[in-house]
Design a protein that fits this description.
By secondary structure, the chain is an alpha/beta fold. It has helices spanning 33-43, 47-50, 55-65, 82-91, 104-117, 157-167, 187-198, 210-216; strands at 72-76, 96-101, 123-127, 140-146, 168-179, 219-229, 232-241. It has one domain (11-15, 28-241): Rossmann fold, CATH 3.40.50. It has a seven-stranded mixed beta sheet, sandwiched between helices.
Length: 243
């Protein structure tokens, strides 16, 4: 595995914010992991069509992650493998891309894409739970998550981020793309959270306080991009370990 390199940041999109004094709580996730796995297994064959609107935000996240040749990177919740292919191209033959996902269906779909792209020799995918990553400490230069962290219930979010911190090099970085919970929720967020509570398996994610969660897990956000998708706030945050 290579030494970590720091990617240049774009100063036009840095929005530094103070560490919050109080940690608010997002809406709870009530469906089980078994239900999530079964649901994404069913959706895996046509998930690219369902989640087409996520692509610009994922691409922007990969842009600020700034992978370089020879780096080692982990994606948590790789889905159908869209970001995996882009990362495999960025790190070249001397790098390694690892990915985990809870869904066997997603794993099969992503592996097929990886094989077709001819990058199987530098991509390692497996079906795992992000709350217990199967990797040694300080194994990765970078960690990437897109529209995944908000799938975990509130008590599990810090567990997942703690695992990310454990496997990330001290000089590494993490980029998280997620639906974000604003201080004052508009009608779109309130309607979405209502649907999440009424249909917890179908609408199984919800906006989270992403920056707060990263601060609490020992990360310092260094690049924050705020966007909107269908009226829902999206944050793309690049952060580095503190200390």
């Amino acid at each position: 595995m290579s030494g970590a390199r720091r990617a240049p940041l774009n100063p036009t999109i840095i929005l530094m914010e103070d560490t919050p004094a109080v940690q608010p709580e997002a809406t709870r996730v009530t469906r089980s992991k078994a239900q999530a796995k079964a649901n994404y297994d069913r959706l895996s064959k046509f998930y690219d069509l369902i989640a087409a609107s996520e692509k610009p935000y994922i691409d922007l996240g990969l842009q600020i992650l700034g992978l370089e040749t020879g780096e080692t990177v982990l994606e948590i919740g790789f889905g159908t493998g869209r970001a995996i292919l882009a990362m495999a191209k960025a790190i070249g033959d001397s790098g390694v891309v690892c990915g985990i996902d809870i869904s066997e269906g997603m794993l099969a779909t992503a592996r097929e894409k990886v094989q077709q792209a001819g990058v199987s020799h530098r991509v390692e995918l497996s079906c795992e739970d992000a709350a217990a990553l199967p990797y040694e400490a300080y194994a990765f230069d970078a960690v990437f998550m897109s529209f995944t962290l908000e799938l975990f219930d509130n008590p599990q979010v810090p567990v997942v981020l703690a695992e990310c911190r454990r496997v990330l090099k001290d000089s590494g970085r993490i980029c998280v793309v997620a639906l974000s919970k604003p201080a004052h929720s508009g009608i779109a967020v309130r309607l979405y959270e209502w649907a999440h509570r009424q249909f917890p398996v179908l609408v199984d994610c919800r906006p989270i306080y992403l920056q707060n969660e990263l601060y609490a897990a020992g990360f310092q956000p260094v690049n924050i991009i705020k966007k909107s998708m269908w009226g829902l706030p999206v944050e793309i945050v690049l952060a580095r370990p503190v200390g």
